[in-house]
Predict the structure.
Amino acid sequence: MTARPDRAAARRNGGGTPVEQVGALRRLGVVPRRLVGFEAAGLVSLWLWVRRRRHGVPESATAVPYAGAVASTMVMFLVVSVVELVAVEILLRAVGAPAPLRHAILLIDAYGVLIALAVIAATVTRPHVIGPDGIRIRSAAFLDVRVPRRLVTEVRLVRNYNEQGTIRVDGDVLIVSAIAQTNLVVELTEPLRVVRPLGRVAYVRTIRFFADDPAAALAAATSSGAAVTSSGSG
């Protein structure tokens, strides 16, 4: 009779059963690995960007860009980062900061600029992909969801301008937005397992996402036979 209350009390105190504690530790370990993976994928994206190539777009598929909507915001962030780097260096020199400190701060700021460039490159080189096998929905290096053709019942146009967050799960709906917008919806026949950016798993039956040219994306879905489509708005 006391086992259940004791277990609840243990959870409140940060404990729990040994199995639960091991599971929690494993989840904590997933986050650093995924963060390192994001950085590695971003650096690969920089290399692809320089070579004007894209990641994961076979000849039989159609790339569906989404970088256009967020390009100005990301470039502005990059410019601010560069200005901050220069301003901090000038300030540290003016107050006579020792060279090792200046070099350390400069290195950290330069790495921040590199990461900002990597995110921009990942957004450009990792578009959504629509092909005969299905639909691949991505958000830079942070999310990569493959939707098999057999699960897709409908792709339709929508106009949502008030989405919250770039990547979010609301019930059984996955939302992948750009500057708070989505304009395409994919409906599924059954729940699809989705791994969120920091490793948490969700099961979704609807996906809302953004494309720079949603009409072209819908046409690609129709011509590739990737889905049963409808152009109705939602």
About this structure: The first strand starts at residue 62 and ends at 64. The chain is about 45% helix and 25% strand. Confidence is low (pLDDT under 50) at residues 1-14.
